[in-house]
TrEMBL record:
It comes from Lysinibacillus composti. Keywords: ATP-binding, Hydrolase, Nucleotide-binding. Catalyzes the cleavage of 5-oxoproline to form L-glutamate coupled to the hydrolysis of ATP to ADP and inorganic phosphate. It catalyses: 5-oxo-L-proline + ATP + 2 H2O = L-glutamate + ADP + phosphate + H(+). This is 5-oxoprolinase subunit A.
Length: 254
């Protein structure tokens, strides 16, 4: 049987600013990427999100990003590999501190936004991030864009590595995501988005913007929790995947 993990970026509220319907969306995902305070999130939000994930049986991962609250971590910064390493260790450590108080283990680490996209193409940054995760724990799963420098770095160092695909993003012929600066970067039609996921999981391919079939591995699919119809989409994709006989399970489940 085919299988896939559904992950969602959560804990991205900050102070009085509230983003997304976490409690509802957690009913339909299997892994939660929790913001660690650099691009979004704060200590209270981190704790509350962990509690909700545990209550819903959702596996927990750290979602470290660039220190850019105003830009939501989506603006590139000219950082060194050492700085990338330090940022990841710092943020994963913050989330791990909370998990310890719940006697809960961390499943994975998934970089956020610009840090994720930079590491997908920059070997030095990718290897620094993989090294940071490995040094914290070789048992942590590293999430990265399917076929990217980040997944290559994770596999090279010996980390369990999950190749991630996206439901609501279009792809380029080199396997990269279409830049959010482009008007066709996002897929807004739910049926089209889910059919793209089914194709990636069952066929191991995605149709790029250039109408070229691009091979990729789909271990986990990312859905975004901050859209206007995020909960409805999460429910819909979970239902369609099940109908297509694709088991929805976290990366660590057998």
């Amino acid at each position: 049987m085919f299988r896939v993990d559904i992950n969602c970026d959560l804990g991205e509220s900050f102070g009085r600013y509230r983003l997304g319907e976490q409690e509802e969306i957690l009913k339909y995902v299997t892994s939660a990427n929790i913001a660690c305070g650099f691009h979004a999130g704060d200590p209270t939000v981190m704790r509350e999100t962990i509690q909700l994930a545990i209550q819903n049986g959702v596996k927990i991962g750290a979602h470290p990003g660039l220190p850019d609250l105003n830009g939501f971590g989506r603006r590139e910064m000219n950082i060194t590999p050492q700085e990338a390493y330090d940022m990841v260790v710092y943020q994963v450590g913050a989330l791990q501190g909370f998990l310890t108080t719940f006697n809960e283990t961390m499943q994975h680490v998934k970089p956020h936004g610009a840090l994720y996209n930079m590491a997908a193409k920059n070997q030095g940054l990718a290897e620094a991030i993989a090294q940071a995760v490995y040094d914290i724990s070789p048992q942590l799963v590293l999430f990265g864009l399917a076929g990217s420098e980040l997944t290559k770095a994770g596999e090279k160092i010996g980390l369990p590595t999950a190749h991630e695909v996206f439901a609501d993003r279009t792809y380029q012929q080199d396997g990269s995501l279409t830049s959010r600066k482009q008007p066709d970067a996002l897929i807004t039609d739910s049926q089209q988005a889910v059919q793209q996921v089914v194709k990636m999981v069952k066929e191991g391919r995605v149709l790029s913007q250039q109408q070229i079939e691009v091979p990729l591995q789909a271990d986990s699919v990312c859905i975004h929790g901050d859209g206007a119809h995020a909960v409805e989409f999460a429910k819909y994709i979970h239902a369609v995947l099940t109908e297509q006989q694709i088991a929805v399970r976290s990366i660590r489940e057998g």
